[in-house]
Amino acid sequence: MTLFAEIRETVLAAIGALVADGVLPDGLETRAVTVEPPRDASHGDMATNAAMVLAKSAGMKPRDIAEALAAKLADDARIDTAKVAGPGFLNLRLSGDVWRGIVAQVLSAGKGYGRSTIGAEKRVNVEYVSANPTGPLHVGHTRGAVFGDALASLLDVAGYDVTREYYINDGGAQVDVLARSVYLRYLEAHGQKVAFEDGTYPGDYLIEVGQALKDKVGDAFVDKGEQFWLAEIREFATEQMMDLIRSDLAMLGVEMDVFYSEKSLYGTGRIEAAIDDLRGKGLIYEGYLEPPKGKKPDDWEPREQTLFKSTAHGDDVDRPVMKSDGSWTYFAPDIAYHFDKVSRGFDELIDVFGADHGGYVKRMKAAVSALSDGRVPLDVKLTQLVKLRRGDEELKMSKRAGTFVTLADVVEMVGLDVTRFHMLTRKNDAPLDFDVDKVREQSKDNPVWYVQYAHARIHSVLRKAAEAGMTPDPANLDAVNDPSELALAAKIAEYPRLIEIAAKGHEPHRVAFYLYDLASDFHALWNKGNADPHLRFFQEDDPSATSGKLCLISAVAIVISNGLGILGVTPVDQM
What we know:
Blueprint: H1 3-20, E1 35-36, E2 46-48, H2 50-58, H3 62-73, E3 79-85, E4 89-94, H4 96-109, E5 123-127, H5 139-157, E6 161-168, H6 173-189, H7 205-217, H8 226-251, E7 258-261, H9 270-280, E8 284-287, E9 305-308, E10 319-322, H10 331-343, E11 348-354, H11 361-371, E12 378-383, E13 386-390, E14 393-394, H12 407-414, H13 416-423, E15 432-435, H14 447-467, H15 483-505, H16 509-531, H17 543-567
Parallel strand pairs: 5-6, 5-11, 6-7, 11-12, 13-15
Antiparallel strand pairs: 1-2, 2-4, 3-4, 8-9, 9-10, 13-14
Helix pairs in contact: 1-3, 2-3, 4-15, 4-17, 5-15, 6-7, 6-8, 9-10, 10-11, 12-13, 14-16, 14-17, 15-16, 15-17, 16-17
């Protein structure tokens, strides 16, 4: 339970006491009562809306309830002051012992500080990246990979049972194009001159694949029609591309639990089973769709198709699952794939898509709702575009890929830690500018450097103190008594609540934001120590005070390390 949850329980107990005293009527609904940080930190440490929530049902003025509640809360040793503000909000200021207790708690919990049980071991499937296996991952995939991986780690810390999954799009026509592109490189490896037509993949990354194919089959496919080689090269090329993608993911620190092949859905009855499930629920029918918006009547030829009644589950229009020629639409295998997820017993599904899949969200949610009878929620997170630049120059090309900047390019330019952290400095659905020069600056304007610098600074103090024979000792936490020190401890106390809020909202960027704020508070206290010797963390002439202050900054380092661990970033000890 977080400190905020504990104080909320205290507020609820005080409400109960007021009911017992006859000040408040019995039977009040308290579920909407909250205890949160106030909007203005100068107002206090926490604020509760209890009086505002209870006023109507109690038939009382909010301020009258707030004043009675403040009097009750004043009896709690943890609460220094309880003051009524505005129409009836109640601002609380906690005692220094509470914040010193938080520091001791962090030191005791270590890596476990911030872990939660709100997930209750619910099984969550997080599908992310899922790029077509036709080439190396690009900078856009990088953002989705980092976001999905950090989200999975966040949910794990919050107590969910998480499965990280990659859906291999190897069932469509794009893999045939890959096979033909590899065949051209294969012929090139045999000394032939080739031309890459529009629609093929001309990137240099296929040169090695063409050579590997030559090493495997010799000249068996030279000058042969594709009926002799398409199926085999398709499989060979897909495996080669997935090896490349796995290598890219490893470079980014991403490790999947499951790689699921779209191809495995075809010819196995899985698509048919999913559609039959929907048909059994009265959600599959034969019909005609309205012409697409913007089409003139003479451009449109209505054809009877097999349709999924997705409007019954919140979609705007019904969606085709089988074309008039009897072939499946792109949507059909996606339905089957999510039917498989539901069948595997997941309690919640999360899909991380690129921004270009925005039009796919409602139909996919409708499908999962229908397939699970509303039991399994699907949250689709869209990651917006990344503009990679160097100053005023936008970087768009890769020597290896030919047409785009690869994940490997980015990591090689700025490193894994910078890549991962910076990808989370904006909410996933907001565009992101990634300046490869700016992110390597050693300044407050570079969030990853600023956070890592705080961690390194702390460890430099700890090393210096250890050389003088001084170590953190919670018995001396009374030395942590200045308002700015207690404010830093209060910031540490926010971390468990932040984890729960971020996990519930599927928002790992909140962790990055919090770490930057925590680092800023630490650096500010460091700077105050330059002017006020009493606030310095290491005091040669006062071992007792030093050991207490070392506890405070050690707790800050633990929280930074734990938070960076969620983001997949290394907490460096020296810079």
